[in-house]
Every structure is written in C-alpha cells, then in structure tokens.
Structures
1.
Amino acid sequence: MATAAANGILLIADISGYTSYVASTEIEHSQQILAELLELLIRHTRPRLTLSKLEGDAIFCYGGPETMRGEAVLEMVEATYAAFRTRVESIQRHTTCECEACRALPRLDLKFFIHHGQFIKQQVAGNHELLGSDVNLIHRLTKNHVSEATGWQAYALFTEAACRALALPTDGLHVSREAYEHLGEIETHSLNLRARYEEMLATRQVVVTPAEAHGQKVVEFAAPPQVVWEWFADPHKRNLWQPGNIWSAANRPTGRTAIGATNHCAHGDKVSEEVIRDWRPYDYYTVDMHVHPGEISHPIDNRETIILEPLDDGQRTRATFRCRTLVPRFYSPLIAWMYYNVIMPKGFRLLHQYFASPETSA
Ligand SMILES: [Zn+2]
C-alpha cells in the first residue's frame, strides 16, 4: 500500500435517473445499458484524467497537477455529454423492448462535478483510492440545489476553487451557494449541458467537403483524439510544433474558443488572422485563415477543416486536413499541395515526436 499527496482536478460524472431505473424489475437490461454508458464515460475522460473508481452509477476520476486548461475541461465535459446523449438516443431508437428499463431511457441524464484541491492517493490492490477533505467535498456536492433552482437535469458544476485553479471563464454560469456540515459554505458555478448540446445540434455545420477542397492530407497520430485536439486548439501547444509561428488567442466574444473567435499568428513582422467558423470537440473544426502576404505576392484567404477520427478503440487518431482557397485562382491547388506537402510535414514530424514521448504526450 503506497500513499502520495497530490494536488489537482477531481471529477465525478454521475448518471441520473438511474436510481429509480434499477429499482425496476428488469435488472438485466438496466445493467447492460448502465455498463455501456459507464464505459463510454471512462473512454471519453481517460485520455486526460485517471479513473479512481466506479461508484455505482458514477465514475470518479482525477488529474493533476498541471493536466488541463480550463477550456479543455469544459470541452471534455461537453464532448462527453454529447457522446452520452447521442448514445442514449441511439439505444432508444433501436430498441423495440417494452421493459421498464428500456422505457426509462429518455429519463437518463448526466451531471458533472468538478473540484480542484488536495488529495492523498492510496494504492489498494491496483486501485487508486483517493482520500482527503476535498475528496469528501466533491462527493457532498452531488447533493445540491442546482436542479431545484434551475430545472436543469444535465449540468456541469464547478467549485469556486476549480474555477480559480483552471482559470475558467464563468460568464453566464449559474451561481449557487451550498452549505455542508464541517465543510462550510461552497460557491459553485454551473453550466446547462442540455442547452449547450441542443445549441450545437442547431448550429449550421461549416465543413470543407472533399469535392470543393483544393487540397487534402491524411495523417495518423499515436495519441487519442482528445489529446490531438488539444495540440491543435491550445495556441501554446501549437507553437511547440509550428516553430517560426507565434500563435496567440485574440478575440473571444463568448469568453471561449467558439464560432467567431479569432487567433493571431505572428511570423517575422507579419500577422495572419484565423477566424473560427465551426468548433466541435473532438470531431472537427473549420477556420478561415487570412494569410498576410509574405513570401508570396497576394494575401490568401483560406478555409480549412480538420477532422479527427478515433482509431484502435480511441488510442490513435486519423486526422484529415482539407483546405479551400476562398477566392479560387488557377494556382489554388498548387498552394494547397505546397502547404500540406512542403510546409506542414515539419510540424507533423514534431507532433509525432511529442506523442511518442510519455512526458509530453498529454
Ligand atoms: Zn428492455
């Protein structure tokens, strides 16, 4: 039995609607569905966090100390919720079963609880048992007043400590105070996951199709899509594999990387601007890039879609890059070919190196 003190993220993903669900008579179907959904939760959080244990209808995981950006935590939570929702709806569509468990499917939903603090890691028979008052706190937080105050069935609740440690944008989140015996009053910020999911479904997709692309490149990476996404989405990580460019987050109208947000790229005394047109972690994103005239004589406005697909049960990723010059010229295919076969391969080689090294692969 080994113990170690640590500091980091604590996360519980809790399937709700389930307690009444197992109480029903058809245990077989309810167990089967629950096992599948818990597995889905583990698969979607595992690349960035470590599973401590299963707790009935919930998973408890942790990460730390410097494992994630606040925005990356939000994207992980939203993408996991979207995968959960899609799966539940698909099971529901494909079942003809009339049993109580299957009929209860529409009531199933998902809540996330995220805290940041200290914990003692105790290794018991291969499991990481976590101990400490912050571990108690996150478990107490699963009983709160958010649903009562807002009517939300699916949400992500962040403690004040989590918001501070992760530098989370809290604009528009529901603020609530919960009081717990021995732990005092805790301020929380909650995000309506169902609303975010429906907003995403309603947003028009912007994708460069194979037919309209002037160039395409497919690259496979030895890292899960969640990790590859972060190396493309985080400007700091991007600078590590695109040397010579200095990427920085520019405008963030919603406080987050989302449609309409911009990034700047400085190279020498030139600045290129990138506008996000579509953003769906960890499936794909589309950006419009205004490349400042540098070595070439005309400015180029380019639209690029990058699609990530999991390979080998989510352990590896196939990335498909497609670009299209927004004002097509006869040399557009040539420029796209140069971009993917002369300029980008240097960056791809660096990315392969990072993913091959255990220290930097997160
Ligand atoms: Zn059934």
2.
Amino acid sequence: MHATKSLPVTGPAGPLAPLRRWPARLDLLQSATGLALGLFMWVHMFFVASILLGKDAMWTVARMFEGYFVFGTAQYWLVSLLVATVALLFVVHAALALRKFPANYRQYRTYRDHLKQMRHEDTTLWYWQVVTGFALFFLASVHLYIMMTRPDTIGPYGSADRVWSDTMWPLYLVLLFAVEFHGGVGLYRVALKWGWFEKGDPLATRRKLRRFKWALTAFFLVLGLATLAAYMKIGIEHAPYYGQPYVPAGVATEVSP
Ligand code: HEM
C-alpha cells in the first residue's frame, strides 16, 4: 500500500503559499478598535469642554456618567467600568499596532531613507503616527489609570485641582497634541484603506480627505487648548481650597467633587 501524496498547489508564478486570513482579520480589528477610540475621543473632548459653558454644566455631565440622575446617588463604579472598557480597547489597539513598528535599527534606517527619498506626505504622516502612537502608550496610560481609580474626583474643582495643583497640565498638553494628531491621521488612513467616501477620482478624494483631516485636528486642538486653559484658570483660583468639592446651589455636598 502506498500513501497518497498531496501535490503542491501551483500558480502561474510557482507554488502558492497557503492562504492566511489572520493578518487581514488583525488589520480589520486594528481599524475597528482605532475607529472606536477615535470616535470616543471626539465625544470625550466635547464632554470635557463642558467646562467652557460653566462649572454647573461640567458638574452635570460628570454626575450624569455616575448615574446620579437615575439612582439618586453617585455610582462611581459606572465611570470605572467605562474607563476599563476604553483601556481594554486601547490595549488591544496598541498590541495590534506593535506589528507595524520597525523591529530593529536596520528596519528603522531603511524606512527613514525611504521617507527622505519619497518626500510623500502620506508616508511622512505614517511615520509621525508611529511616533505619536508610541508616546500615547505612556501618556494615555497615566490618565486612564487615574480616571479609573479616582472617578470620585472628576468635577469642576476636582479636575481643575488635578490639572493645576497636581501638575497634570504638562502631561495633558503633550497628550492633547499626540492624540489629536494620531487620531486625525488614523481616521484618515482608515477611510483611505477601506475606500470610504471614494467617488470616481481617488486622488481628488485623497486631497479632500486630507484637508478635512487637518481641519478636524485644528478644531479639536483649539477646543482642547481652550478647555485646558479653563481648567488651569479655575485650578489657580481654587488652589488655596485644594480638595474642596464644587457644590452647585441647592445640591447636597457629598456628591460634588
Ligand atoms: C473613559 C475614559 C476617559 C475618561 C473618563 C476621561 C476623563 C477626562 C476628564 C474628566 C478630564 C478633565 C481633566 C481631569 O479631570 O483630569 C480629561 C482630560 C483629558 N483627557 Fe481624558 N478621559 C478618558 C480617556 C482619555 C483618553 C483615552 C485620552 C487620550 C488618549 C484622553 C485625553 C485627555 C486629554 C488630552 C485631556 C486634557 C483636556 C484638554 O486638554 O482639553 N482621555 N479626561
């Protein structure tokens, strides 16, 4: 008896490698987690910017996330759960992104030489996306950890004290630029990669998308800087009363950081 030999599958250019679907699946997961984080970031910036409308507005947003208006008392674990979910997305996204980082100095040099020769804007954008992504590993982790473990301190005075008296503003300043640049380029690249908004002329679509991306980044940077300045101003004024919670007129003291 002789065993049946399986013949190698061949194509016009020789033997074909077995079809591997995992790299495509992981790419899809990277895009999906990035998209979710990018959309979360937009919403986050608007909620945090509620301070520009006044202390009462920010106090109301913070209490809303704690379920205060549903349960009648602050349920801080709700905020911790939300942060844990975002942190999980962040970790999965970062782990998948590691596949794209240059693995050694030689790969890095090859890429840098290629970048210099090409002088192509999208290639340069990709490089800066890797650099800002790397920075986010550290910067965002600090912020997420504090938000997860101290949700009870989120509020007009609690947040302003953290920004100013706890000296978080330098971290937030760098984090703001890193995340807005990274997110803007990320969403632009996802739109190009999966062919969204593609109509007829791909080059014209690319130009329009790029312009839209820069406009969005500029908008969120201006909003973020104004927001940060507002927290710093309140933080400076509130420094002598560090730790004292904000109490809107006619509300019990115990739920108002
Ligand atoms: C569910 C998760 C998150 C929550 C609950 C949250 C909450 C907050 C709050 C309350 C502030 C105001 C300052 C403070 O209290 O310290 C703030 C500021 C900020 N957060 Fe988050 N955050 C989250 C996730 C993130 C992520 C993932 C990033 C970026 C990767 C980020 C970037 C920033 C930046 C840059 C600021 C400064 C605000 C500004 O410059 O306008 N946050 N966040």
